[in-house]
């Protein structure tokens, strides 16, 4: 039996692959990930990927490095 993957999982997969293609430019990936999060806001997996993508962007700015930890911490503590 073929089971279709829901739209938000396609979006989050595409967002992750987009970020891995060029991890210095993740704005478009964050946009797609945000759309996936809108479709499934309670998913730990989707929220963690969104946080990781935002953390990747924060690495580009020296004054935002503490965000890297805090973004994923909020997901681990289920405060999303």
How do the strands and helices of this protein lay out in sequence?
Blueprint: H1 7-21, H2 27-39, H3 44-58, H4 65-76
Helix pairs in contact: 1-2, 1-3, 2-3, 3-4
Structure description:
- By secondary structure, the protein is mainly alpha-helical.
- The chain contains 4 helices and no strands.
Any key phrases for this structure?
mainly alpha; 80 residues
How much beta, percentage-wise? under 5%
Distance between the termini: 34 Å
Which runs of at least 5 residues are low in confidence (pLDDT < 50)? none
Overall average pLDDT? 91
The biggest beta sheet is recorded as: none
Broad structural category: mainly alpha
Number of DSSP-assigned strands: 0
Rg over CA atoms, rounded to whole Å, is 13 Å
Order of helices and strands: HHHH
- Quaternary state reads single chain
Tell the overall outline: flat
Summarize, please.
The chain is mainly alpha-helical and about 80 residues long. The protein is built from four helices and no strands. Helix 1 packs antiparallel against helix 2, helix 1 (about 5-20) runs parallel beside helix 3 and helix 3 runs antiparallel to helix 4.
């Amino acid at each position: 039996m073929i089971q279709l993957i829901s739209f938000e999982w396609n979006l989050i997969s595409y967002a992750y692959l987009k970020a891995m293609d060029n991890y210095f430019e993740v704005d478009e990936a964050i946009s797609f990930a945000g759309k996936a999060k809108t479709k499934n806001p309670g998913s730990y997996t989707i929220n963690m990927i969104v946080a990781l993508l935002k953390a990747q962007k924060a690495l580009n700015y020296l004054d935002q490095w503490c965000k890297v930890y805090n973004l994923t911490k909020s997901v681990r503590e289920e405060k999303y």
